[in-house]
Amino acid sequence: MRGFAPLLAAALLVGVLIASAPASVQSIGVCYGIIGSNLPSPQDVVQLYRSLAISGMRVYTVEPPALDALRNAGVDLILGTTNDDVAHLAASASNAAFWVQTNVKPYYPDVKIKYIAVGNELTGGAAQSIPAAMRNLNNALGAAGLSAIKVSTAVKMDVIANSFPPSGAVFAQPYMTDVAQLLATTGAPLLANVYPYFAYLGNPGNISLSYAMFQSGAPPVTDSGNSLVYTNLFDAMLDAIYAALEKAGAPGVRVVVSESGWPSAGGVAATMENTRTYNQGLVDHVAHGTPKKPGPIEAYLFAMFNENQKTGEETERNFGLFHPTNKAPVYPINFAGSVAANRTHLRGSRRH
């Protein structure tokens, strides 16, 4: 099998990186970005996911080679539309039906498409098309007999206003109320990209690094609105989204963390040790939930590989868990989580 020897070597280097993951942390997935010139083949990537028992993958566009490689792999998938697709999908039911027939029907159920993300971190006027695009895709999936696939959109923390304390959060734009109520109707979760790193970067004077990185001993923060106590920034950010959903009339909508991570180089506090500390802390934490919403969290680490063709700050090219050329780990991480997981404000976003 092509690439088997390097993959085996990578798994051995990781050591305890998941021989078998307990059910309580099977909600950890990893995002698979492809903005790089030296990435492994999709077949090798899928084999790496399987060898490490990573149960979920997120992709940002329809790439037939990647989808073909996922056939019968047993990996749950968040399939993204491009941001440019959103207005087209919103324009007509026939556009959405064609998208489903072309990009979903040929692969499902061999490919375990769990969610479709209508755009990623759309802002401004383009974001106003999200509810219509979601409705059209929902109807198209239903007509095709694929209603088990849930339609959502991936948002960044900028959709939230008044995010501190978390209980005071509301959605900043009216279209998000439409999104929330549609999700409540269909039973789909809201996908949210949650980055304590960027929140810390924007306010280091008021946010301690230990609080941003799940470290024990971080000074706790009490929500003055409901007296909940927060020992890490991730929980505060996630509960701000839940508070906004409640105020939008959608208290039952679940939040899936569609991205979270910490860069290992290229910026303030972007070190290998900080990255390992944050990402391991997240893996350890997801089994427990937040003060407002106890229970397992479905979350996706960003990202599988460093992507050398990403634009922007140097940190953008240094979120990877694995080196793309040899699939060796950038730093050790145990996807199974530690037995004693840590229990231990609010804007963070990143570009794609």
What does this structure look like?
This protein has helices at 4-14, 42-51, 64-69, 83-91, 93-103, 130-143, 174-186, 196-202, 209-212, 233-247, 272-285, and strands at residues 28-31, 56-59, 76-80, 112-120, 150-155, 160-161, 170-171, 190-193, 221-222, 229-230, 255-260, 299-301. The protein is of the alpha/beta class and 352 residues long. The strands form 3 sheets. An 8-stranded parallel beta barrel has the order 1-2-3-4-5-8-11-12, surrounded by 4 helices. The protein has a two-stranded antiparallel ribbon with strand order 6-7. The protein is globular, with a radius of gyration of 19 Å. It starts with a helix and ends in a 51-residue tail after the last strand. The model is unreliable at 1-26 and 339-352 (pLDDT under 50).
Number of helices: 11
User: What is the number of strand segments?
Assistant: 12
Residue share in helix: 25-40%
Pick out the low-confidence regions. 1-26, 339-352
Q: What is the strand arrangement across the widest sheet?
A: 1-2-3-4-5-8-11-12
Major sheet size, sense and barrel closure: 8 strands, parallel, barrel
The value of Rg in angstroms is 19 Å
Proportion of β residues?
Answer: 5-15%
Average residue-wise pLDDT: 90
Summing up helix and strand content along with how strands pair, one would put the structural category as alpha/beta
Shape, per Cα inertia axes? globular
H/E series, N to C?
HEHEHEHHEHEEEHEHHEEHEHE
- N-C termini distance: 32 Å
